[in-house]
């Protein structure tokens, strides 16, 4: 259950073998699914193409609901990749967990705080990057920290860190807890032979089903929050006001 | 820094780097092999749908125009046919009238001709009878008086006689 991960040192950096295996596996699975589903595409979609188009539509809608189409289009690929990657990652640990000699080799990558923190860290960095790119540094800074009222500046700076932490730990907590409980139920089932199996198997099934649900929800939540954070940075209040004024003027004309 | 705080002694920068790089690679691969063909197809479909809708509208408009045109043409043809029938009727009436007057004239002409012929016949018969009678009278007179008479001298007498005869006939 609480297995250690093998650590290798390379160029002075420490790499966890488990994390590398599961992250790479998740990437490979996502890529294969997307690759296979996008072969032989037709204007009239069938089967697998319907499936991948549904995912693209779904992730695209997440982006569209967070920000206007004009700025949103470039983030649709990010949303698509994020939701696929996180969903696959969340489900990976549900099928089985592999531990050999106290070293764990298979689990959900998102059941590790480092992985989720890395993802959240990347997302928050991206929001700042796109914010500066879209508004220029001055407007980005003013809209992010000073407006509407300057005295909230410390809170807003703190918010950036809490955003990163909550984004990462929400995902990690849900998936990790799910795997822990799966392990505990398995231990319970194994504790007294056949009798506990009769109790344990249905419990495990129910909890796995619930974890599939949780994993889907968390993938959706992570992607949605990413897009919301990006939209906060990309379109400042001032810009919105300007757009609204422009719209009103347009209507008046 | 946060990662360090969480993990304590062992730095997790390697893991972070690995996750970020693999995510980036995944993103790029997906973009190249899945996202671009997918969006291309979806865009193409959207275009197709839009153009189909446009085409359908155009076709509907065309059909409506065609129907209106055909209806007006039908009306025209109806008008034309009734006009032709009218003309034919008038023409036939005219021809009938013409033929009637023509035949009437013909009949009148024939009647006139017949009358004339009858008159000529009558005159001829009358003249023949005159000659016959005069001849008979001359012979009769010759026999009666046994005297040579010139045709000319007696002709006057006989004419008078016949004239009177004719008058008495007419009186009858």
TrEMBL record, chain A:
Report the GO molecular function annotations.
Answer: proton-transporting ATP synthase activity, rotational mechanism
| Ribonucleoprotein is among the record's keywords | no
What Gene3D superfamilies would the database entry show? ATP synthase, F0 complex, subunit A
Topology in the lipid bilayer: Multi-pass membrane protein
Which residues are listed as membrane-spanning? 20-38, 77-99, 114-132, 205-230
Q: What SUPFAM superfamilies has UniProt attached to this entry? A: F1F0 ATP synthase subunit A
Alphabetical list of CDD domains matching this protein = ATP-synt_Fo_a_6 (cd00310)
Name recorded for this polypeptide: ATP synthase subunit a
Q: Which organism is it from?
A: Pisciglobus halotolerans
Automatic annotation (TrEMBL), chain B:
Q: What name does this protein carry? A: ATP synthase subunit b
Q: Does the keyword Membrane apply?
A: yes
| Tagged with keyword Ribonucleoprotein | no
Location within or outside the cell: Cell membrane; Endomembrane system
Q: Which residues form a coiled coil?
A: 46-146
Q: What InterPro entries does UniProt report for this protein, alphabetically?
A: ATP_synth_B-like_membr_sf, ATP_synth_b/b'su_bac/chlpt, ATP_synth_F0_bsu_bac, ATP_synthase_B_chain
Q: Which SUPFAM superfamilies match?
A: F1F0 ATP synthase subunit B, membrane domain
GO CC list: endomembrane system; plasma membrane; proton-transporting ATP synthase complex
Q: Keywords in UniProt for this one?
A: ATP synthesis, Cell membrane, CF(0), Coiled coil, Hydrogen ion transport, Ion transport, Membrane, Transmembrane, Transmembrane helix, Transport
- Give the similarity note: Belongs to the ATPase B chain family.
Q: Which organism's genome codes for this protein? A: Pisciglobus halotolerans
Q: How does it assemble?
A: F-type ATPases have 2 components, F(1) - the catalytic core - and F(0) - the membrane proton channel. F(1) has five subunits: alpha(3), beta(3), gamma(1), delta(1), epsilon(1). F(0) has three main subunits: a(1), b(2) and c(10-14). The alpha and beta chains form an alternating ring which encloses part of the gamma chain. F(1) is attached to F(0) by a central stalk formed by the gamma and epsilon chains, while a peripheral stalk is formed by the delta and b chains.
Q: Which gene carries the instructions for this protein?
A: atpF
Q: Which residues cross the membrane?
A: 6-30
- Output the superkingdom of the source species: Bacteria
GO MF terms listed in the record are:
proton-transporting ATP synthase activity, rotational mechanism; proton-transporting ATPase activity, rotational mechanism
Q: Which PANTHER family match?
A: ATP SYNTHASE SUBUNIT B, ATP SYNTHASE SUBUNIT B', CHLOROPLASTIC
Indicate how the chain sits in the lipid bilayer: Single-pass membrane protein
**Physiological role:** F(1)F(0) ATP synthase produces ATP from ADP in the presence of a proton or sodium gradient. F-type ATPases consist of two structural domains, F(1) containing the extramembraneous catalytic core and F(0) containing the membrane proton channel, linked together by a central stalk and a peripheral stalk. During catalysis, ATP synthesis in the catalytic domain of F(1) is coupled via a rotary mechanism of the central stalk subunits to proton translocation. Component of the F(0) channel, it forms part of the peripheral stalk, linking F(1) to F(0).
């Amino acid at each position: 259950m609480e297995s250690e991960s093998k650590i290798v040192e390379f160029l002075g950096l420490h790499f966890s073998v488990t994390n590398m295996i599961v992250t790479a596996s998740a990437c490979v699975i996502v890529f294969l699914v997307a690759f296979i589903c996008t072969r032989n595409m037709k204007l009239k979609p069938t089967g697998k193409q319907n499936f991948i188009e549904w995912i693209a539509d779904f992730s695209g809608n997440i982006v569209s609901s967070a920000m206007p189409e004009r700025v949103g289009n470039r983030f649709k690929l990010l949303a698509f990749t994020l939701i696929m990657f996180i969903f696959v990652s969340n489900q990976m640990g549900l099928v089985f967990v592999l531990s050999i000699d106290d070293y764990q080799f298979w689990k959900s990558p998102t059941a590790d705080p480092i992985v989720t923190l890395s993802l959240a860290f990347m997302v928050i960095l991206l929001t700042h990057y796109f914010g500066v790119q879209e508004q220029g540094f001055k407007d980005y800074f003013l809209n992010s920290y000073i407006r509407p009222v300057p005295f909230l500046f410390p809170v807003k700076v703190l918010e950036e860190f809490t955003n990163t932490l909550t984004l990462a730990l929400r995902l990690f907590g849900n998936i990790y807890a799910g795997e822990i409980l799966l392990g505990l139920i398995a231990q319970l089932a194994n504790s007294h032979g056949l009798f506990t199996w009769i109790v344990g198997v249905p419990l495990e099934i129910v909890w796995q089903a619930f974890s599939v649900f949780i994993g889907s929800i968390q993938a959706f939540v992570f992607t949605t929050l990413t897009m919301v954070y990006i939209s906060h940075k990309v379109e400042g209040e001032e810009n919105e006001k300007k757009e609204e004024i422009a719209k009103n003027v347009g209507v008046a004309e | 820094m946060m990662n360090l705080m969480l993990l304590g002694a062992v730095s997790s920068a390697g893991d972070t780097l690995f996750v970020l790089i693999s995510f980036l690679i995944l993103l790029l691969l997906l973009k190249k092999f899945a996202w671009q063909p997918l969006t291309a197809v979806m865009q193409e479909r959207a275009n197709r749908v839009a153009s189909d809708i446009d085409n359908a509208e155009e076709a509907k408009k065309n059909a409506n125009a065609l129907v209106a045109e055909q209806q007006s043409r039908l009306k025209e043809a109806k008008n034309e046919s009734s006009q032709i029938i009218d003309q034919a009727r008038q023409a036939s009436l005219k021809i009938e009238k013409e033929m009637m007057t023509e035949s009437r004239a013909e009949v009148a002409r024939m009647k006139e001709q017949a009358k004339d012929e009858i008159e000529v016949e009558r005159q001829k018969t009358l003249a023949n009878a005159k000659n016959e009678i005069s001849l008979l009278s001359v012979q009769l007179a010759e026999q009666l008086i046994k005297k040579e008479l010139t045709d000319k001298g007696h002709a006057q007498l006989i004419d008078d006689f016949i004239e009177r005869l004719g008058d008495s006939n007419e009186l009858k």
